[in-house]
Amino acid sequence: MTKLRRSHHGGDKGDSWFGKVVKLTILLFALIIGGFVTLLDMDKKAEGSSSGQSHQQNSSFEGNLTPAYDREYLPVSSNKEIVHHDYYSLAYNEKYEQADWVAYELTKESLQAKNVPRAKRFNVDPKVRTKSAKHSDYTHSGYTRGHMAPAGDMAFNSDAMKQCFYMSNMSPQLRECNNGIWKELEETVRDWAYDKGSVYITTGPLFYDNGTPTIGDNDVAIPDAFYKIILQKNTVKSVSFIIPNALSNKHLKEYEVSINELEKQTGIDFFPNLLDELAEDKMEIKYWPISDKKYNQRVNNWNKQK
Fold it and tell me: pTM of the predicted model, to two decimals?
């Protein structure tokens, strides 16, 4: 009995010493693991914070627009220099010192991006082998440097904004056109791109008279009108317009034409990989809603601004 007690008592002393060691070991291990987890969590939070700041600072849209080698929406035109920039392509016409067409994709995602500041400088296009027009060609000419790919469509990052200010993307527009009906059409197209998710756009100048007047040292030709074609790829529905280079109080609907009509006037094959002859002859303005409010704003305000 005594031995049993001693044995039991001795066992208690041994268990107490061993237990303390085990508890101390477990405590130290827990402290080490806890400290490691805390540090890891702090590191993750710091990383998350840094990532959030980086995302906030770099909130502009960077990708998913079709690269140059895979732009199936490009027109086909002969004897013109094709130039690809990061977010749009063009066919430069040396005779007129401007593009026959400018083509690009406009998406809801790019329109949702925070706008970068508007560029302040118009630069010669470094990619045009024959040399593009220059800023001074338009100075004191009475014509604005009219964007074919608008700055409002290219405001999703600084590279797109800078490149849309190349002079190869400009065409002489009367201020009454540029700040009036052309502005309305550009804003309307952005509404369509936002509502429909993504559209392809091709736009350019039209010349009706062989005796076309010019401006500047480089003899930049003054267009009689401008065209714009909008295509929603998934539905293969399109709409196209011819807009006079002049003041207009008419509704945009009155300027709708078929793509076939545009092809006859320009000699350009638009969307050859996406549309057949039947689709090119359709007039589908009902699918593309035009705001009467914006029209009234143009007629009552924009057209009256000097």
Answer: 0.79
